[in-house]
Structure formats: structure tokens, C-alpha cells
Amino acid sequence: MALHITQIEKHKFVCGLFWQSLSRPRELAREAADLGRKIDSDLMVIRMDHSTAQAGFAQSKEGVRRGMFSLAAVVSKTLALEGAFYDGEQQPVHNWLGAFELPDGMWAYFAVRDANFLPNGDFAGPRQEVMERLQSDYAMGGWNVIIGDSTLADLDFHNFNARDIRSFIPHRKDGSIRVHAWWGLRQIDGTPAWAKAMAAATVAGLVAVGGMYGYRYYQQKQEEQARDRAIAAARENMLREQSAASRPWTGKPVPLALVRSCHAHFGHITAGGWLLDSYSCTADQQSYAWSRGNSTVAMLHEQVPGALVDPSGDKATYVKALKTQAGVNDALVEQRSLLESIVSPLQLMGLSARIAEIDPRKGQATPQAGAGGQAGQWRPSWKSFSFMLNAHGVEPEAIASILARPGVRIEKLTYRGSEWLLEGTIYAK
């Protein structure tokens, strides 16, 4: 996202920072500076809300200067202090979208999931572009509130809070902005990128005078291209690593939630006297398959009007949409301790799960010896394991209680031949 500088009263604010999470509480500045150097950024700001810490990065060669304020940091801090009104009360808010008109006519957009700005969740652009992004992100679901200018109220967002951008900026009694130093972008290293660029241009000119300009220009272009490729790779890696979409467990319900939802909607066991062949249930839908037995098509349709009967009249299926609450952004735990904490209790119950490591990039099971992947491809920082488990008469909810651990997700529940089969994925460090 391109950086955008806007002026509110006498102060300049920046939108479009590249946000990354920080994990070392005792040395946030050092960790942020190290990250900034890796992605060739020379300016940063650090925010801390709801026990989370993030750094926002920018490059001074894009026109941003030290001391300009991060508008995203100001808005998120105010929301962290004040909360928002949803579900009938004023309360803390960790998942929110915001769209606000700026004094210069552009619109600012913010997307925060689990109290963290998404890497591309801070930008400014024309109203149409911001509205398209707002509608797209809103469709993902899981947001506590939508906050924005009062003109957006007609769009019928749930839990909409109408506020303008100035209401997030603290003011003194005389009406002037109460500035906090931490809002300001700080220099990562001693020399700004724009100064380095100017110095490089001066050196290039001197080399040209000395007759070496052509060689030096070629050499610089090669270095710039190599650096740009490295920066692009680092940015892509970080975006994948930090975005909600690349953390697949966040969009999947926790084990108990899925099992209870599937059980609650398991109601057509002997529909019209037909014999149940199988019932399967995921977070999105449930499906039944029956054989006619001694019943009739009419008797089936009397109880399940939407059932689809095959031409022979002896087999039927029924699929119905199901809505299950998405999971949370679990902090993953170490592979060995997680797997042992699952396998051992199951063994005490006489159960055994089939567990296989999979390649998260492809979603396919791979032999452990061949899991290295091709050089240059992105590899997540977590490991993924598929699992399949026959309950053998044990209630699925009892098994789900064992599986209720960080990063464990049941994705499909199947009932066939009086047996329950559970399938899912385990994510671990």
C-alpha cells in the first residue's frame, strides 16, 4: 500500500504503514528495528494495546519524515481505552473495521483482527476503493463492530458505530490536539533513506565525471534489483505469516463448538422410515444419505421435503447449510508436547488416531522425509498434521474435550454404521 500523508489541524498524519507483530516484550524497540532493516524500512512506530505489541514501518524515500504521526496508532489507542458499543453494551473491542473521510477528501481504512492491524489493514485511498475493501473484509465475518462516518449507516452493517476521524484524536481544553510523542515515526538507523539516496546520487555523479559512471550505474541497478527481490520476498513472507487468511485455524471452529453444532442438528436419523447410510457434518453444512428399505419416496418427502431421490427411488440425499462460530487465533504450542497431550489420553480410552504431517502450502499429506519443500518457496512457521479417529462407541463430545487444545480443529464429523468418525487438522510449532 502506498503511504498517504494528510493534515489534521496543524499536524501531519500518515496512513499506509506496514504492520508487524512483536513478540519480545523486554526489547520491543530492538525487535522492531531488526524487522525494519529486513524489509528496508527506515522509519517505525510502536503501538501497544490489549497486551499486544506491533510495529508499523515506512520508508522516508516515499516522502514520510520522522515525527509525522501514525493515524492508525492514534485510532487504535483510543478504541483500546474507550471500547465500543456492541451486543447491547460498551465493551472492549478486538476485531473491528473502520472507514473515515479525511480532511483532504481521501478516506482512511483500518482492519484489526485479534487487536492487531492486518499487515495491509492500514491505508488511505479514494472512497470507492475503501468501500470495496470494507465490503470485501466485512464478508469474512467475525468482526465485533464496524466504525465509520455517519454516511455509512445506510449500508446496514451490524453493530455499526458512527464516528468521524477527529473524535479519535485527544484534544486539550482549548481545542488543540493533545500530542503524544509515541505517535511519531522514529528513525531506525542514523541516516534517513532519502539522505542515503541523495548521497548515492552525488557519488554516482562524481564517478561519471571520472569516466566510471556506466559501470557504476550497471552495478547499482544489479544491486537494486537484488535488493528489491529480497524485500519483495520478505514482505510476502511476512504478509502470509501475519494475515488472518494464512493462519487457517482462526477460521475453523474449536472442537467442542463443531461437535455440539453437528449433534444439535442431527435430526433425520430415520426420515420417513428410510435407513440412514451416513451423516456428515462440517462447519458449513450437514449432509444425509439414506436407503429406502421398506418405506416410500412420499414418506421421505413428508418429513424432509428438500431430499433429493435418485432415479431408482431407492437412494436419497439431503444437504443443508450450517453456520458454526469461527475459532480464535490460538497461540500455537510445541509439536511434541501437543501431540503427546492428545495421543496419551486417547490411548487410555482404547482409541488410536491416524496422524500424518502435511505440507501447509499444498494441504496434502506428505511423508515426513520429503517435507523439505522446494528451495525459494514460502514455508509457514508452523507444522500441520491431519488426523482421523474412529470413536468406537465413545461419545464425540468426550473426544472433543480431549482435542480442545490450542491449534487443534475438528473439520468433519461422520456417522456411518453406528460409528462416529472424526477428521481434522493439528497445527503446532
From TrEMBL:
Q: Tell me any Pfam family this protein matches.
A: PAP_PilO
Name the InterPro entries for this protein.
Answer: PAP_PilO
Mind telling me what this protein is named? Pilus assembly protein
